[in-house]
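>> received
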Amino acid sequence: MRTSPHDAGGYDSRSFVAEFYDFVPAYSNRPDAAFYLDLARAAAGATLELGCGTGRLLIPIARAGVEIVGLDRSQAMLQRCRQKLETESEAVRSRTQLVNGDMTDFELKQRFQLVIAPFRCFQHVLAVERQIACLRCVRRQLAAGGTFVLDVFQVQAARMHDTAFMQESVEFEGVALSGGRTLKRTFRTAAFHRGEQYNDCELIYYVTKPDGGSERLVHAFPLRYFFRYEVEHLLARSGFAVEDVFGDYDRSPLADDSPEMIFVAKAAG
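>> returned
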């Protein structure tokens, strides 16, 4: 199966994304960490994280005594994760393994009691055939009785068409970086593709240097959006049975105003 360059989300082609990732407040303060940590502890076995990135979830899960494998296509993000792991104890490092791989085409020797696809990683996979390929890889990696958890946002209708979102909006500013630099980030939708259910997105980083100079760096990528029963059908086609659908990390049911769609599934049969 041909690999789409879009599926990497631009994380390798723009080295600044990995450099700045852990400084973004929306990532470091994201409320999903306790949810996934509880799942990993309860799984009573190894965890596989798809799109592990810089280890935002992987490292706390390993600290909690859980064996975890992190898979990611971006060498830059994995290198940042390795650097962070170097500061951890030997016990934590011994419980982790990092794999550079494609989440739509992978096979590991190990089987897992829990596989997680957190924080929109699945939304970087645009084509249906590649989405199904990813889910079938996951099913193959699950141990008997294992659980798969998939997290996507619940799309707001206006974000599929409203041109107001094509204007830059500030997400944060004034974040301190190394070398006396400060960071600001804005977001905009560059184009809508309703017929194919994705938007072209831009995260724009403004770096101010101590001498007053500045840089404008753009992380551009397409992002797929999904609807509830579309995901349930994808899971069913890939051999899963959905057990729960949550609307947020407090395990509340999916509702019209829920920000998330979190699917908890088991291998069917």
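>> The longest strand covers residues 142-153.
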